[in-house]
C-alpha cells in the first residue's frame, strides 16, 4: 500500500471512528469550526506555495493574535499575556488562584513553513475550551490555552524563548537583547506586540501549573507508516545548537599565493567534512545538521575572511549527546588552522520523558473514540520540553503526510486533525469534572 493510500485509509477510519463516537453520545469538538480556524490562520502570512511565513513577533503573528482573541472573546473566554509575549486564553475555573491546566503550542512558523506545525496545538486547545464553555462547564481550576512566543527560532535565535522564559531557563533581559538578521531587537518587537493589545491583561511571568498537554503533528513518518492516528509521545530527544565563527584573512583571489592564505571557507570545508563523518556518522540515532551559513565578504574574487555557521545536533541518549558536543568543539578548534574558530553554545536541552499517567490518559482517550495509537519518541523539540520539569506534561501526535514539516507542502488530514483534538478534549475532561456531573 502506498503512503498516500495508507493516509487516505487511515483518515477514512478516523472519520468512521468519530461518527461511531458521536453515535455513542461521546463529547466531541466542532470539526468544521476547528478546520475553518486552522485555514483562517493559514491565510495570515500565506505563501505562494501553500505554506505560511508567520515568524515570531511579526505583523503576521500580531494578526494571528487578533484572530485568536476575537474567537476567545466570542466564546466567553479570557485572553491575557505576559512580559515574554506568551498568549493565554482561559476558561475560568472555580478557584482562580489555584495552578491552572495548560494546553497549547505556538503560532509562529518557519519562513516557508506549513499550515499545521505549532498552530494546530493552539487551535485544538482553543477548540476544547470553546466546546467546554458552550456546555456551561466551570472547571475547578482555570483551563488555559497557551501560544508560546518564538518556538521556531527562525527570526530570533534560539527558539522556545517564551516557554524557556516562563520556566526560568532563560532570563527575560537576555531574551530581549537578541537581534534578528535585520538588527531588530526582541525588546522592540515584543514592545510592538504588546502595544498592539493595550487592554490585554498582563499575567506574571511564570506561575505554578497543574499540568500541560501539547497536541502537534508528528513531523516524521512513523505514525503514517504504522497506520496509527494518535501518537502517545514518550519524550523528546536531546538537542544542542552551536554558533561557529571561523576567522581568517581577506585577500585578493588573483594575487595571494595558496600557501599564504588564511581562507575561512577552506577551513569550513575541512571542518564540515569531518563533522559530518565523525559526528553525523556516530550511530543511526544521531541527527547532525549545518543549517545556516554566512560567508564574508561573499565576493567572487576575494578570499573569504569569515564564515559563520549554525549547527543543530540531536540524540536521544544524553551521554552520547554530551560526548558528541564536546568532540564537535574539539574538531572545530583543531581543523580551523591556520584560521581560528570560536564555538558558542546556544541550546543545551537534554532528552526528557513525559508523565506516565498522562501518557495512559492519551492512550485510553484514543481507544475510547476508536483511534489506533502507538507510543512514539519525538525527534523534534517542542515547548513541552520546558514544561516537563515544572508539572506533569505530555504530548499528542497526529500524522503528517510523508512525514513532511517545515515545508510549504506540510499536510495533515482533516479527520486526523479532529481525532487529535478529540483526544485532547478527553484528556482534559477530568480536570473539568467538577463542572460536568457524570463524565461523558
TrEMBL record:
The keyword Nucleotide-binding does not apply. One of its GO terms (molecular function) is metal ion binding. Its cofactor is Zn(2+). Binds 2 Zn(2+) ions per subunit. Zn(2+) 1 binds at residues 106, 117, 216. SUPFAM superfamilies: Bacterial exopeptidase dimerisation domain, Zn-dependent exopeptidases. Residues 235-336 form the Peptidase M20 dimerisation domain. Keywords: Hydrolase, Metal-binding, Zinc. It holds the Pfam family Peptidase_M20. NCBIfam families: hydantase (TIGR01879). Belongs to the peptidase M20 family. This is Zn-dependent hydrolase. It comes from Variovorax gossypii.
Amino acid at each position: 500500500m502506498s503512503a498516500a493510500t495508507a493516509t487516505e485509509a487511515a483518515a477514512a477510519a478516523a472519520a468512521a471512528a468519530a461518527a461511531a463516537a458521536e453515535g455513542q453520545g461521546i463529547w466531541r469538538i466542532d470539526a468544521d469550526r476547528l478546520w475553518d480556524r486552522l485555514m483562517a490562520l493559514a491565510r495570515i502570512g500565506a505563501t505562494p506555495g501553500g505554506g505560511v511565513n508567520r515568524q515570531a513577533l511579526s505583523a503576521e503573528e500580531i494578526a494571528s493574535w487578533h484572530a485568536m482573541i476575537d474567537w476567545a472573546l466570542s466564546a466567553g473566554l479570557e485572553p491575557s499575556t505576559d512580559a515574554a509575549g506568551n498568549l493565554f486564553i482561559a476558561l475560568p475555573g472555580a478557584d482562580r488562584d489555584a495552578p491552572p491546566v495548560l494546553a497549547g503550542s505556538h503560532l509562529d512558523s518557519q519562513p516557508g513553513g506549513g499550515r499545521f506545525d505549532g498552530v494546530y496545538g493552539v487551535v485544538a486547545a482553543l477548540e476544547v475550551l470553546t466546546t467546554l464553555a458552550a456546555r456551561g462547564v466551570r472547571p475547578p481550576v482555570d483551563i488555559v490555552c497557551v501560544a508560546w512566543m518564538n518556538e521556531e527560532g527562525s527570526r530570533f535565535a534560539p527558539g522556545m524563548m517564551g516557554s524557556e522564559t516562563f520556566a526560568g531557563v532563560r532570563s527575560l533581559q537576555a531574551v530581549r537583547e537578541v537581534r534578528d538578521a535585520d538588527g531588530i531587537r526582541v525588546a522592540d518587537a515584543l514592545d510592538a506586540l504588546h502595544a498592539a493589545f493595550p487592554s490585554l491583561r498582563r499575567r506574571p511571568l511564570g506561575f505554578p501549573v497543574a499540568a500541560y498537554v501539547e497536541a502537534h503533528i508528528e513531523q516524521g513518518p512513523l505514525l503514517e507508516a504504522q497506520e496509527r492516528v494518535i501518537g502517545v509521545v514518550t519524550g523528546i530527544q536531546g538537542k544542542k545548537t552551536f554558533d561557529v565563527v571561523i576567522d581568517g584573512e581577506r585577500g585578493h583571489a588573483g594575487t595571494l599565493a595558496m600557501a599564504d592564505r588564511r581562507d575561512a571557507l577552506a577551513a569550513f570545508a575541512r571542518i564540515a567534512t569531518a563533522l559530518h563523518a565523525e559526528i553525523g556518522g556516530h550511530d543511526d540515532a544521531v541527527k547532525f545538521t549545518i543549517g545556516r551559513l554566512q560567508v564574508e565578504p561573499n565576493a567572487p574574487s576575494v578570499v573569504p575572511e569569515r564564515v559563520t555557521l549554525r549547527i543543530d545536533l540531536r540524540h536521544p541518549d544524553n551521554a552520547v549527546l554530551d560526548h558528541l558536543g564536546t568532540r564537535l568543539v574539539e574538531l572545530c578548534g583543531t581543523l580551523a588552522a591556520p584560521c581560528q574558530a570560536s564555538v558558542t553554545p546556544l541550546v543545551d536541552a537534554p532528552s526528557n520523558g513525559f508523565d506516565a499517567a498522562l501518557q495512559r490518559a492519551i492512550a485510553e482517550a484514543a481507544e475510547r473514540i476508536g483511534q489506533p495509537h502507538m507510543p512514539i519518541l519525538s525527534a523534534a523539540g517542542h515547548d513541552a520540553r520546558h514544561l516537563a520539569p515544572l508539572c506533569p506534561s505530555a504530548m499528542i501526535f497526529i500524522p503528517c503526510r510523508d512525514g513532511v514539516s517545515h515545508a510549504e507542502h506540510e499536510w495533515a488530514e482533516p479527520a486526523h486533525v479532529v481525532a487529535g483534538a478529540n483526544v485532547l478534549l478527553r484528556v482534559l475532561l477530568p480536570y473539568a469534572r467538577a463542572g460536568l456531573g457524570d463524565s461523558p
